[in-house]
TrEMBL record:
The chain crosses the membrane at residues 12-34, 289-313. It is found in: Cell membrane. PANTHER family: SENSOR HISTIDINE KINASE YPDA (PTHR34220). It comes from Paenibacillus cineris. This is HAMP domain-containing protein. It holds the Pfam family HAMP. It comes from the Bacteria.
Length: 576
């Protein structure tokens, strides 16, 4: 939900891309799921099929081994074999030869009874001979005869594995350590390998018959590394007591489908491993096509994104930036690089709007400027005659006194400088240095009037900027008029400045005793709302309105309690 709310405040480009991906990605995900589920289903079906084939061939081997084991006692109880084994040395040569030929004939019948029998044998130690089905003159192989003894095989299984050869044997009499003879068959490992090969070799795999307890095996394939992995799997399944099933072996960056089946008769695991690419070849093609489809989808996304940026996003951003410039009073037309489409219409409409706004501004700007200049002249005219009335009374008093001739002369010079500044300069803005010089002239005039009753510290840096005329002297005049002029004690006036954050602050502070905190707060409130009042005003309000007309509403005059104890008036001017 948070992502949805985030998109609500995003650009149109992000919303379109999100909608496009929201439609494309689920389709790709569904296709991938269908491919994977189909592969899993086919893998399961093929695994069951191979497992059934393994069951069939293993059952065939079980049946053959069981049939041989059940028929072997019939040959062990052969009368001729018993007689030769018991009295062979006492028989004449003809009679013994005749009986051995009969025994060979019956061994040959047993050999031909099953394709899995390679040879039938009778081991007769009394005459030191091994009777074969197809050979008459043979000697008893003592090592082989020793390996055929019952203690060489498990009681739970009929098989003896010796020198890569597999045997099923039975002795007479049973249970004795030194029997009269042993009858056995040698199974054809080649035929068993052919049977195992029919399961998986045609598909590029191999099948192995593992006897894990006696550590013998019959392998139908040449890959020994894969054989070791199959044997490891057989050990794992034996430890887990799992008789049949299928698993996956990873070998040489390939996946091998591995089917296993346990035979209790052979006490063996038959394990078959087949490369998945051989049995899932068509699915691999579909998977490759799916990934190609993914690549194509990425290309389509980039293609769609490119044309979306070129045809919609960039023109839209261009239009948005033009509107932002318009908000900053930069009325510049858009270069129309579109033909008769929607953005071409919007560009032309924007340019027409810019042209109309420029016309309106040009028609109203001069009228607005004239109005502001008229307001400034009107406000300045309120100041010009303000100080004239009292100057002549002070001058007359100084002239009458014989001891004040020099002060009278100096006072006349100050009056001339003062009114010369008022009447000669018609510019709305003057250098700050000139405004400070005029304010010092006014302070010197007041020092002559009040003498030592008022102490003045004038410390303002003359910054190289232009300011509206008469912004400092009226504030100093208010300090004399309302705070210092009527004091019984010594008055203090401190005029200083600070430069901070691209703005100049001029402080006018006094130690007046008459103004209260409530009056200071009321005066500050009137100053904040004075720009909305058009009635005639003088003093602080006069200066405050002219500064705001010149620099903006964030500049002007603010008031607070001074460190000297009286009023502090702060004039904020822009350095730019």
């Amino acid at each position: 939900m948070k992502s949805i709310f985030f998109l609500q405040d995003s650009s149109i480009f992000k919303k379109i891309m999100a909608a496009f991906l929201a439609a494309l990605l689920p389709l790709m995900a569904i296709t991938w799921m269908m491919n994977e589920q189909g592969a899993d289903h086919i893998r399961s079906e093929i695994s069951d099929s191979i497992l059934n084939t393994t069951r069939f061939y293993l059952d065939s081997l079980d049946q053959e081994a069981d049939r041989i084991s059940r028929y072997l006692p019939n040959y062990v109880m052969d009368r001729d074999l018993m007689e030769v084994a018991a009295t062979g040395e006492q028989m004449n040569f003809y009679e013994r030869s005749y009986k051995i030929l009969d025994i060979q004939h019956r061994l040959d019948l047993m050999k031909n009874s099953s394709p899995f029998i390679r040879e039938s044998k009778a081991y007769i130690p009394q005459i030191d001979r091994t009777v074969l089905s197809n050979s008459y003159e043979t000697k008893l192989n003592a090592e082989e005869y020793e390996a055929m003894q019952p203690d060489k095989k498990l009681y739970t299984g009929p098989f003896i594995y010796w020198q890569d050869r597999l045997f099923i044997t039975m002795q007479y009499p049973a249970g004795k350590k030194d029997p009269l003879y042993v009858v056995g068959v040698e199974l054809s490992t080649g035929k068993i390998k052919e049977t195992l090969a029919q399961i998986g070799n045609s598909r590029g795999g191999q099948t192995v018959l593992f006897n894990l307890e006696r550590d013998w095996e019959i392998n139908s394939g040449p890959d020994l590394e894969l054989h070791d992995l199959m044997k490891q799997l057989a050990f794992e399944k034996q430890a887990a007591n799992v008789d049949e099933g299928y698993d996956t072996i990873h070998y040489k960056s390939k996946r091998f489908l591995t089917v296993f089946k346990y035979s209790s008769l052979w006490n063996c695991y038959m394990v078959t491993s087949i490369p998945e690419e051989m049995i899932l070849g068509s699915l691999q093609v579909y998977k490759a096509l799916f990934w190609w489809a993914c690549v194509l989808a990425v290309i389509i996304v980039f293609f769609f994104t490119y044309f979306l940026i070129r045809l919609i996003y960039r023109p839209l951003i261009k239009l948005v930036r033009s509107f932002r410039r318009m908000q900053q009073n930069e009325l510049e037309p858009i270069l129309i690089d579109r033909r008769k489409d929607e953005f071409g219409y919007l560009y032309q409409a924007f340019n027409d709007t810019v042209k109309s706004l420029k016309t309106l501004i040009e028609e109203n700007y001069e009228q607005q400027i004239r109005t502001q200049r008229s307001e400034l002249k009107r406000l300045q005219s309120q100041i010009n005659p303000h100080f004239l009335y009292n100057c002549f009374f002070v001058l007359c008093r100084l002239i009458k006194s014989d001891t004040q001739k020099e002060k009278a002369y100096q006072f006349c010079l100050y009056i001339g400088q003062y009114f010369q500044f008022i009447t000669r300069h018609n510019d709305d803005d003057i250098p700050l240095e000139m405004e400070l010089e005029h304010s010092r002239t006014y302070v010197e005039m007041q020092s002559i009037c009040y003498g030592d009753r008022i102490q003045v510290l004038f410390d303002v840096d003359a910054q190289p900027i232009e300011v509206p005329r008469l912004i400092l002297q009226p504030i100093i005049e208010n300090a004399y008029k309302y705070a210092l002029g009527n004091m019984l004690g010594t008055g203090e006036l401190w005029v200083h400045s600070k430069l901070r954050n691209d703005a100049l602050y001029i402080y006018v502070e006094d130690n007046g005793e008459f103004i209260t905190d409530e009056e200071i707060e009321a005066l500050g409130k009137k100053l904040r709302y004075s720009t909305n009042q058009m009635e005639e005003t003088t003093g602080l309000f006069n200066v405050h309105r002219r500064i705001q007309l010149r620099y903006g509403e964030e500049f002007g005059i603010t008031v607070s309690r001074s460190e000297l104890g009286g009023l502090q008036a702060i004039i904020k001017l822009s350095m730019s």
